[in-house]
Design a protein that fits this description.
- The complex is a heterodimer of chains A (about 190) and B (about 250).
- Chain A has 2 domains: about 1-90, Rna Polymerase Sigma Factor, Chain: A; about 100-190, Winged helix-like DNA-binding domain superfamily/Winged helix DNA-binding domain (Arc Repressor Mutant, subunit A, Orthogonal Bundle).
- The termini of chain A are far apart.
- In chain A, about 40% of the residues are buried.
- Chain A is about 75% helix and about 0% strand.
- In chain A, helix 1 crosses helix 2, helix 2 crosses helix 4 and helix 3 crosses helix 4.
- Chain A is built from 10 helices and no strands.
- Chain B has 2 domains: about 40-90; about 95-250, no CATH class.
- Chain B has 3 helices and 10 strands.
- In chain B, strands 1-2-3-7-8-10 form a 6-stranded mixed sheet, with no helix packed on it. In chain B, strands 4-9-6-5 form a 4-stranded antiparallel sheet, with no helix packed on it.
- The chains are: A mainly alpha (about 190), B alpha/beta (about 250).
- At the A-B interface, helix 2, helix 3, helix 4, helix 6 and helix 7 of A face helix 1 and helix 2 of B.
């Protein structure tokens, strides 16, 4: 069905394009918001991506490659968006509202641990480069294999593996640093 | 605590939280764009590059593409012939090719003479006519990333050429190029910045003060491999790298 929609949209059918956009928009927005960690930036990246899809769709020779191509476009737009933002700029947290201090202290220990864990991941993830975030999102959010990630990013499989390894290592280092920062023994040592 | 599999599991769980529904605003904007830009027949579609990698000149599309390529070639030859016969070829003297090797000699390069005065000073001369050059920026593997136009409004630039950057991305900021002096020549600075393979580094403008530079980049839709660019600029006189501010701005396609 998606193949038909892609073919029709490529020919200029705007209804097919709208259906296609509504089918794939959620997934694309999910990718952008997880890379950028900012709702408004992700909206901008999605809009730019959908416009690019309309403009460039006729060039896509194989309609079955639409999904991988759309992932490539949203990742590219998100990384470009992140690069435009100055380092250390304001970032809207995606944590739910109940993660405020009052909410946390009133929760059971398990839930407190989960919130703290998410918070730590959020801090560590933000310390990664946009490229590193992108490759981790493709693996852990989209569940893509290494070959599929390489295809989306347009790089060799070996390069994708290397970059995934470095991204994981960078995140682990960021989390370890966060652990040390929050460890009272380390701070007093 | 942070064993690899544990981290993978934590990331899997964490990534599943967060928005999965697209907001209406970008969708509406894209649909408006589609309405305002209805599809038109593109006679060159068959030779345009496939965004997922295969080009219009690939084996599968060659039979379809060849007649169009041949027609384009004929058109190009015809246009060149008309331009040559009619004496219409632009002979602007200020557009010069970049010098291929750096010069440690204090005399200005013989191929680029942006200023009528050969005085070896980098003092800006605001009245000078802007000099335009073009440089093929090379990647670490020698391939050309982009053809960059260099507009020198200071009248002090003597030569420009691409360097041979190292593999990967090394620039300290996404908004600025790193600037260092050539250790052998205080008149020469080396600009290094990081972009992606698909980016089009379109233009470098050197302001009349000879110290403020702007690199205009058109973000491309390509792969995400970060690669360094290196541009070597030689001026008429010494240019301390610390005085140079080379900012990077994204511009629309």
């Amino acid at each position: 069905m998606q193949r038909d929609l892609v073919e029709q949209a490529a020919k200029g059918d705007q209804e097919a394009f709208e259906t296609l956009v509504r089918l794939s928009g959620g997934r694309l927005f999910g990718i952008a918001s997880r890379i950028l960690r900012d709702h408004h930036l992700a909206e901008d990246a999605l809009q730019q991506t959908l416009v690019t899809i309309w403009d460039e769709l006729p060039r896509l020779r194989d309609p079955d490659r639409f999904e991988a191509w759309s992932y490539r476009v949203i990742v590219r737009a998100s990384v470009a968006q992140a690069r435009r933002e100055r380092r250390g700029g304001p970032v809207v947290r995606l944590l739910p509202d109940d993660a405020d201090a009052e909410g946390i202290t009133s929760r059971a220990p398990d839930e407190f641990g989960r919130v703290a864990d998410r918070d730590q991941l959020e801090r560590g993830f933000k310390r990664l480069t946009p490229d590193q975030r992108a490759i981790l999102v493709l693996q852990h959010y989209n569940g893509l294999s290494l070959a599929e990630i390489a295809d989306v990013l347009g790089i060799p499989v070996g390069t994708a593996g290397s970059r995934l390894h470095h991204a994981s290592r960078a995140l682990r280092a960021a989390l370890d640093a966060d652990d040390r920062t929050n460890d009272p023994k380390e701070r007093t040592a | 605590m942070n064993a690899p599999h544990d981290l993978d599991r934590r990331l899997d769980d964490w990534m599943q939280q967060g928005p999965d529904r697209a907001p209406e605003r970008p969708i509406a904007a894209a649909l408006d764009h589609a309405s305002a830009h209805p599809r038109r027949r593109d006679p060159l579609a068959v030779v345009r590059r496939d965004p997922m990698g295969s080009t219009g000149f690939g084996l599968g599309s060659a039979p379809r593409a060849l007649p169009m390529v041949a027609a384009l070639g004929l058109l190009l030859v015809a246009a060149l012939a008309v331009a040559t016969v009619g004496g219409l070829i632009d002979r602007r003297p200020v557009v010069v090719p970049p010098v291929s090797t750096p010069s440690t000699s204090p005399s200005p390069s013989s191929t680029v003479q942006p200023s009528p005065s050969p005085v070896p000073s980098a003092s800006p001369s605001p009245s000078a006519t802007p000099v335009v050059m073009s440089v093929d920026l090379k990647a670490f593997d020698g391939r050309t990333l982009a053809t960059m136009q260099i507009v020198d409004e200071s009248g002090t630039l003597v030569a420009a050429r691409s360097g041979q950057p190292a593999e990967g991305g090394s620039a300290s900021s996404p908004d600025k190029a790193d600037v260092v002096n050539d250790p052998d020549d205080p008149r020469t600075i080396i600009l290094t910045w990081t972009g992606l393979f698909g980016d089009d580094d379109r233009r470098l403008t050197i302001a009349p003060d000879g110290r403020t530079m702007t690199i205009e980049v058109v973000p491309g839709v390509g792969d995400l491999l970060p690669v360094d660019r290196e541009l070597i600029l030689t001026f008429a006189g010494p240019v301390p790298a610390g005085e140079v501010n080379a900012s990077i701005v994204d511009v629309a396609r």
